[in-house]
Write a structure and sequence with these properties.
The protein has about 180 residues and is mostly helical. Helix 2 crosses helix 6 and helix 3 packs across helix 4. It is built from eight helices and three strands, in the order H-H-H-E-H-H-E-E-H-H-H. Strands 1-3-2 form a three-stranded antiparallel sheet.
Amino acid sequence: MREKDNEALSSGPASQESGPRNRARLRNVSRSLPVALLRTREAVMRQFRPVLRSVDLTEQQWRVLRALDSVPEIDATGLAMATFLLPPSLSRILRDLEKRHLISRRPDPADLRAWLISLTPEGKRVIDTAGTQAETIYAAITDRIGQERLDTLMQLLRDIEQDLNAPLTDDDAAAARGE
């Protein structure tokens, strides 16, 4: 992005009049929580992408392998929830990982329509190879931002997720509607 464009996005008016009525004034994009989280995610993932490229994995494939590394086996629904992937995307990723012999699938004896998914020994080797490099990157990130700030950030992210996933009270709903 050009510096001039970046300045306009961070200091320019948030919205303009549109037609005969005024549009709601939005906060500036530089103060948008979703955009700030995306910018930070991009800065973090930029550190890890070379590792993923070195083992020929996409970010989504890595998420699947990481999730599978934390359990002996899991069904596709649980894996989709753990990785925040939509089922059609997960299906394609699982097919690709299975072709590469990084995962295996077997019918779930409790529900023959479902499959249980697990890492293969080759998948574990890929996790071990990339994981060693990833931990080096985590250490470098920790050195740059500090352990205390990283711990605070992780706690804040957990707290915000928990707060936003909690059901709204009637007062919260009324406040959101501007009542």
